[in-house]
Amino acid sequence: MSIDRSDIEKLGELARIHISDENALASAKSINEVLALVDQLQAVDTANIEPLANPLGARQRLRRDEVSEGNQRDAFQAVAPATEDGLYLVPKVIE
Amino acid sequence: MHNLTLAELSAGLIAGKFSSVEVTQHFLARIQRLDGNYNSFITITEERALAQAAAADKLLAAGNAPALCGVPIAHKDIFCTDGVRTSCGSKMLDNFVPPYNATVVENLAAAGVVVLGKTNMDEFAMGSSNETSYYGPVKNPWNTDCVPGGSSGGSAAAVAARLTPAATATDTGGSIRQPAALCGISGLKPTYGRVSRWGMIAFASSLDQGGPMARSAEDLALMLNQMAGFDRRDSTSIEQEVPDYCAGLQQDIAGMTIGVPAEYFGEGLNPAIEQATRDALAELEKQGAKLKTISLPHSHLSVPAYYVIAPAEASANLSRFDGSRYGYRCENPVDLRDMYMRSRSEGFGEEVKRRILIGAYCLSAGYYDAYYNKAMQVRRLIKEDFVSAFKDVDMIAGPTCANPAFAFGAKSDDPVAMYLEDIYTIATNLAGLPGMSLPCGLVDDKPVGLQLIGNYFDEGGMLNVAHRYQQVSDWHSRCAPGID
Amino acid sequence: MTWETVIGLEVHTQLATKTKIFSGASTEFGAAPNTQACAIDLAMPGTLPVLNAEAVRMAVMFGVAIDAEIGLISSFDRKNYFYPDLPKGYQTTQLDRPIVLAGTVDIQLGDGSTKTVRIHHAHLEEDAGKSLHEDFHGMSGIDLNRAGTPLIEIVSEPDMNSPEEAVAFAKKLHALVVSIGICDGEMAQGSMRFDVNVSVRKKGEELGTRTETKNLNSFRFMERAIVQEVERQIDLIEDGGKVKQETRLYDGDTHTARSMRSKEEANDYRYFPCPDLLPVEVDQAYVDAVRATLPELPEARRARFVDSFGLSAYDASVLCDEPSTAAYFETVASHCGDAKLAANWVTGELAARLNSEEQLIQHCPVSAEQLAALIARIIDKTISNKMAREVFTAMWGGEGEPDAIIEARGLKQVSDSGAIEGMVDTVIANSTKQVDNYRNADEAKRPKMLGYFVGQIMKASKGQANPQQVNEVLLKKLEALL
After folding, report:
1. C46:B202 CB<8 A
2. Residue C188: CB partners within 8 Å, gap ≥ 6?
3. C280–A53: do the CB atoms touch at under 8 Å?
4. What are chain C's domains?
5. pLDDT digits over B173-196, tens only?
6. Which of B25, B414, B463, C11 could potentially form a cystine with C154 if both were Cys, beta carbons 3.0 to 4.6 Å apart?
7. What topology is assigned to B1-484 in CATH?
């Protein structure tokens, strides 16, 4: 499978990464090289093989429902690009 | 003083031969003087280090010092450090100062270590040569025209150049073992879940694992004793007791069966490295270990499976870097979309963007089954290869890398060639097994590594074998030329 | 031609846990912005989720309450999209293996019949934060206190065929989750939000294209939105157009919905299993233990109100719509001892007052015990029903306990027969003309003429004479004059 320039642009949109005109082709080329490597997987018969998500097959541990985190707004917002009245500011959200 | 091992420094501090402040000053001065040649540090925390050293000296004087009290180390800049910039090698986090510590950082702080600074790395740990760092490449102390390996290239070079006795690192596909091999030091990637991932900036969550880098197996054991352990803040952390890794180092390895995978000695392996590896294995045989050729039939699928799974997880893990709450935000965004697009495009480097796009592709509608799901199925086949191999052998050994350190630029325009750097190390991450690399020779005057792969939670066994080898070899104590 | 409406609901229900689904930050409503958003909720680098045990218990509780099969192994997936209220850039949710599988909920229709609505599944997920659209120099403000609040998303089958059915289903779910204690039911705070899938078709034809209207947080809005959407779709088709599959956003201020075009673009969520969370395993013993703690469900309660309190099916149904109302009623009934009178007051005077003051029963200024004490004074004839309403108003206004109010306002009913006889005698003596009329009137007309005398007596007693007693005495005395 391989991708072209418009695929790259679509992926860029999904991943919110700007694909400039200059590097769209180069990106597509290098990604296609990687996909060619990855395509070796297609030759493997994996019928009835359960996908392995966690290498140890462990189960989720549960946390007790107790408040353990207090207000640290000032510390967190000290590294924020823009805040006001305790809110994070971003360019206007239009739905 | 910088030629002393972590164990020797710790003993000397306890014996009062020197103070932590003296040791710390010595290493800081060395970093100041020499790191211009290697670029192994992103941030040097001189003031904090000296304050920590002074505090350590008090504890040492009072006689109730914890395990590694006063010993200087460095942290890979992927571990969050409260009040100290944590960049992950990226412009995206160039201004990021976390208000919290990674568990690994906490654990080592509790053990009394002094932190010299944060080491350079490939951006978001994506790379095998340390050329993707926003802070410039790290140079290999054995040959400054060559890469140190990656992504923990800064930690590896710093240890190799005797700028720190030990450092923390992370390994997602070989990022501890490959640079350890290329820089002639020892490095260990623990079993997945052995070391907490809390506060360790995620690349690929189901593969990432923190571990130590140092000059000897004994020093790795000292570090791992403090780094390992259950952490309730990490759901994938394993609730299992941590043995004293130092206690088992001396054990006899006679009678142990070491599996040698045929697939790790095939086409592409540098013959001189094959020879060095076989010599090391012969040394282990001399000590009574039995060698047994084994097969890991799905080995050739490790790199393809990895380059689906790791980018897929990364594509989601790196979505949080959006310019909203921390990190880089582009200048004057015209709207929300513009802020996202430009902050991410300007904040991430090319390799990171490439992997995010590959990951998004592998997960996108219509491709999930062919790529992601398939890779997860192959991942199980790879794990099962190891599970059945470990029915017959106690440990697996082979080369860490196919070639010694390569020159800058040699592979940076060829992602596939770069990805194949990790051909022998990636399977271990997919299976969640522990692995390590230790120096076993020089090829073209550059170090090469012997890789050990242990069964689940057998870090102790690997350290034992490595230590026994290091008792009868001196590759690990050799110094790069020009480093006194 | 007849159109048939097909409606399915997705109900986002905030679970009443103390902390977030994946972090130890508080879920308390109404805190200052971002003071309850911890490092995990903010998606700070290196942070990791750990699942809240109580969220799992509550989801399982819902499952057993609707007789659903429980997913003994469930797992979390990442749903990827960028939005400022979604700090990680993905929502952690359950796609492939939800914790609650198929179940059913019965609803009562207007004609008294019962309809079964099938639940497709319910899954655990995290809530998003809030974007505040007030103008901050052309910017939006983001508050992430709500980010990470545990939700179960309850997904119904498209089993409803009218706005009324959809509302009945929504109300039923609301009563259910509140009565089993997994949700506070505070609609105004967004504790329960509805997404409505609507399509229309001509009878007998295949399912039409559906639209999804999001963000409905009241039953009234939901009903209006469905009515409007059904009309819109029918008009569209009858004008030769086609319904486009889209997401619509309802605006509660203007009562209009509009297409969320931005959401439609490149809608590829790239779901995959969350590698930071492991599969969640619950065993049958756990499910059984949760089932054992299940409180009485609204359905059973309704039946009990009819059987043991002798209420009408209608009253029982009204009382059980809202679990807090049912609980309030039970307290009143048990304290005052007259269930019917209690039901009349709770569904009558109290409901009307709550309604007119837009107050929730949880915040009612008159406690159930106080109302019971008031009703007890009606039962023991201390006050009349009419006076009780006056006392109730005073209680609502915060004047205190009913007995004290009756005392302070001198509302105590005069039931002393000597005093009443005296008043009756006086009025008869002062009303010779009316007494003559009464005496000369037809027997059939006489009862109507009593009103005058009663009025005079009540006036003389300043309204405090026990009216029943007054009637009895008056009749006896007038009879004696015949």
Report:
1. yes
2. C217, C218
3. no
4. 3-289 (no CATH), 296-408 (no CATH), 417-481 (1.10.10.410)
5. 999 999 999 999 999 999 999 999
6. C11
7. Amidase signature (AS) enzymes (3.90.1300)
